[in-house]
C-alpha cells in the first residue's frame, strides 16, 4: 500500500512519484530497471547536449532527442492501454499518453536545467516552458509540438462546449499529488477496460487512502467487487453511494441493481 503523503510526492520528480504509484498498484512493476533506464537516458542527454551553449537551442535539441532519437511517441493505436500508465512499460515501449510522456519530459528537462512545469489542462496534461522575461510556451507531450493559447482554447471548447473560455487557472502549474491522483484514475479506468479487476481494486483502495469517504470511489469499488463475485461487499458499497448521493442519476439504477443482487443472493436450503 502507498505510504507516502502529499509532501513526499512534492519532494520528488513526477516520474519518480509515478513509479511509486505504479509499484503500489502492481508489485511486478520493474522499478529498478526503470530507474536505471532514467539515469542512462539522462547521461546520454547530457553527453548529446554538452556542446549546446544557447539554452533555447539546447532545449530544441533536447526535444529532438526525446521524440526523434529516442523515438518516444503518443500511443495512437491503443491510447487507453494500461501500459501507457505504467512508467516502466512506457520506457520499454517508447509509447505513452500525455501524462506519462509529460512526466518523462519534466524529469529530463528539469535535470538538464530547463524551466519547465507540468499543467493538468482540462483536456490533457501539457508542459509549460518559462523562459525568463518571456511569455510562457506550451508543449503537447503526446507529440512534442508547441501549442498556442488559441489551440488550447479550441481544445477547451471541444471538451466543455462553445461557451467555454480559457482562464488563467487553466494554465497554472499543478502540484505532483494532484497529477498522481489523476494518474491513478486513468490507471483504474484502463484496468477496468481490460477486466484486470484485482489491479483495479488496488487503484480504488489507494484512492480511498486519500479520500476515505468518496462515494464515487466507493461506488466504483462496489462494481469491482461485484465482478470479483464479492456480492455482499458490493451491495454495501452500492448502498453507501445511494445513501450519500440520492439525487445522482446513477442512484436509481443502482437501487435496481441492489434489489436484483439481494434477491439473487438469497440462499435456498
From TrEMBL:
InterPro entries: SirB1_N, TPR-like_helical_dom_sf. Gene3D superfamilies: Tetratricopeptide repeat domain. PANTHER family: F-BOX ONLY PROTEIN 21 (PTHR31350:SF21), SI:DKEY-261L7.2 (PTHR31350). Residues 34-184 form the Protein SirB1 N-terminal domain. Pfam families: TPR_9 (PF13371), Transglut_core2 (PF13369). This is SirB1 family protein. Belongs to the UPF0162 family. It comes from the Bacteria. It comes from Vibrio paucivorans.
Amino acid at each position: 500500500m502507498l505510504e507516502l503523503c502529499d509532501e513526499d510526492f512534492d519532494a520528488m520528480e513526477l516520474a519518480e512519484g509515478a513509479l511509486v504509484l505504479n509499484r503500489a498498484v502492481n508489485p511486478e512493476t520493474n522499478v529498478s530497471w526503470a530507474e536505471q533506464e532514467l539515469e542512462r537516458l539522462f547521461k546520454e542527454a547530457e553527453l548529446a547536449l554538452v556542446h549546446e551553449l544557447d539554452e533555447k537551442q539546447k532545449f530544441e535539441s533536447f526535444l529532438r532527442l526525446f521524440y526523434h532519437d529516442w523515438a518516444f511517441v503518443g500511443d495512437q493505436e491503443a491510447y487507453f492501454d494500461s501500459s501507457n500508465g505504467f512508467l516502466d512499460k512506457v520506457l520499454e515501449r517508447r509509447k505513452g499518453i500525455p501524462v506519462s510522456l509529460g512526466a518523462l519530459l519534466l524529469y529530463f528537462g528539469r535535470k538538464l536545467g530547463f524551466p519547465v512545469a507540468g499543467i493538468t489542462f482540462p483536456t490533457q496534461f501539457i508542459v509549460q516552458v518559462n523562459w525568463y522575461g518571456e511569455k510562457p510556451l506550451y508543449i503537447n507531450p503526446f507529440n512534442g509540438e508547441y501549442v498556442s493559447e488559441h489551440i488550447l482554447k479550441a481544445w477547451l471548447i471541444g471538451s466543455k462546449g462553445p461557451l467555454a473560455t480559457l482562464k488563467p487557472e487553466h494554465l497554472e502549474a499543478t502540484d505532483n499529488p494532484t497529477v498522481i491522483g489523476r494518474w491513478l484514475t486513468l490507471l483504474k479506468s484502463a484496468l477496468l477496460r481490460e477486466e484486470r479487476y484485482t489491479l483495479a481494486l488496488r487503484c480504488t483502495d489507494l484512492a480511498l487512502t486519500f479520500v476515505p469517504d468518496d462515494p464515487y470511489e466507493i461506488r466504483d469499488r462496489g462494481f469491482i467487487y461485484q465482478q470479483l463475485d464479492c456480492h455482499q461487499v458490493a451491495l454495501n458499497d452500492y448502498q453507501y453511494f445511494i445513501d450519500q448521493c440520492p439525487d445522482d442519476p446513477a442512484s436509481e439504477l443502482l437501487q435496481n441493481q441492489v434489489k436484483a443482487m439481494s434477491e439473487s443472493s438469497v440462499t435456498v436450503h
